[in-house]
Amino acid sequence: MFAEQGKISFLLDGFDEVDVDRASDFIQSIETIALKFPNSRIIVTSRPSSGIETSPLFEVVYIAPLTNSDYPGFFTKILHRDKVLADSITNAVKNSAAVKAVASTPLLATLLTIVYRSTQKIPSDFSEFYDQLFQILLVRHDRAKAYTRRRKTTLGDREIQEGFEAFCFKSHADDKSVLTKLRALEICKESLKIRELICKEGDFLSDVVKVTCLLQEDGSNIEFVHQSVREFYAAKYITSRPTSVAEKFYKKLIADGRWRRWDQVTKFLSQLDRYRINQYYHVPLIKRALRSCHSEVTVAAAPRLREYLSDKCGVRKVTQDGSSKGANKYYAFVNFSDDLPQLSLFNQLIYDFFFGSTGIAWNIWRSAFNENILTESKSYTEIALCCNKIRELDEFLVTFVQDLRGELDEIEKSQSVIDSSNEFMDL
Q1: Most buried of 55, 236, 292, 408 (most Cβ within 10 A)?
Q2: Closest CA to 414 of 264, 235, 245, 270
Q3: Within 10 A of 10 (CB to CB), how many other CB atoms are there?
Q4: Are 107 and 226 within 8 A, CB to CB?
Q5: CB 393, CB 381: distance < 8 Å
Q6: Which among 102, 109, 64 has a CA at the least distance from the CA of 268?
């Protein structure tokens, strides 16, 4: 009764932590609740590209990052005993545009404080930030108390980090946000072996948990303090592999569609392993996406782009109780023959283009559907035609492909500059 009257709000946190193979079922369950209780507020939090953002029943709202006006109060609160340091880090962050991305959330800003307190220097980007973080956390208590903290292993600081990087890679491949302690120990054993480090897996796990605090123990489970920690150090492990191994890894992501699972990792790799990820991942993917819309040499005409892009995705309506008088359920669908990051991005962008708060059809798109038909699918092209927005759609499609071609040009120019170092080194 309370839900029907809108007196209950549903707050569903961390949709991106749902197993990929169960995400579709969860989306349908959430949409069922939304349709059953239309007066209740439902808020689902998630990272991008988890799937829930493509539901036509929800409006996508991006969380605002911390801003200049937030920093003074935030750093003063967590550093209330050291106002000089709070003012110093506030000014440092304000004066570094690149680092505002690092300090964009309360947790990351807190970790940044740890790094800054130790180094008295603001890292230039995410990669430098996380690169410093592990070693600082590993020794910070020792520095503060002027003694060497007793560890269970005899590994050096760099060796522990190398083992942790392999652990992050292997646990990310498991695609579980939370690991059982048994599985964590198995991964530790494999990681120590591949890094040729000699110690007991239980001792290694204990040192990482108790000394760095980047892994947390919760009963019989082990989880990361933040998923980006696992993603960054997984990327670090990949950068340490020979080119032949890295090439196979990148090609595997393309071949079997695993790029979704590794999307955030590849973002870090774009900083850490720029040349190889461009050569074996980004360039092949963009070229493949351009081929799929027949725009390798020049941008295809708008009507052709509709055929290759906006005809292949849209919205499906299903009447809930099987009668024409029942409540309608709407699902986003895609029918692309290729599962590519660029086409996934296109699907997100076109969804926002139609249904976002400033979308061209956000308040009229349902008029494209026939209420007397129990099940009906409409592509975005058909919805645009029904809403008299075909010109706007065509402009959107052409701009999207032009941007893809521009991105490819920039990458290839960057690669050629790096290639020219052979000549510089007389090789």
Answers
A1: 236
A2: 270
A3: 14
A4: yes
A5: yes
A6: 102
Tell me: pLDDT of 145 over 60.
Answer: no
pLDDT of residue 29: 84
* 113/111 Cα distance (integer angstroms): 5
Is the distance from CB of 101 to CB of 126 less than 8 angstroms? yes
Tokens of 48: 């991008």
| Cα diameter, the chain | 78
Q: Give per-residue pLDDT as tens, 289-343.
A: 999 999 999 999 999 999 999 999 999 988 866 555 557 788 888 999 888 999 9
Q: Rg (Cα) of the chain, in Å, rounded?
A: 25
H-only helix segments in 240-307: 243-255, 263-272, 274-277, 283-292, 302-305
How long, in residues, is the chain?
427
**What pairing do the DSSP bridges indicate for beta strands 41-44 and 9-12?**
parallel
Check if the beta carbon of residue 138 is closer than 8 Å to that of residue 160: yes
Structural contact between residues 379 and 306, judged by C-beta atoms closer than 8 angstroms: no
Helix 106-119 crosses helix 83-94 at what angle (to 10 degrees)? Answer: 110
Q: Could you write out the DSSP letters of every residue in 296-355? A: SSSPPPHHHHIIIIITSEEEEEEETTSSTTSPEEEEEEE--SS--HHHHHHHHHHHHHHH
Going by C-beta distance under 8 Å and a sequence separation of 6 or more, which residues neighbour residue 288? 254, 338, 340
Give how far Cα 314 sits from Cα of 55, 238, 328, 346, 407, Å.
11, 37, 16, 12, 26
Encoded tokens for 74: 């935030």
Going 175 to 176 to 177 to 182, the CA torsion angle's sign is: negative
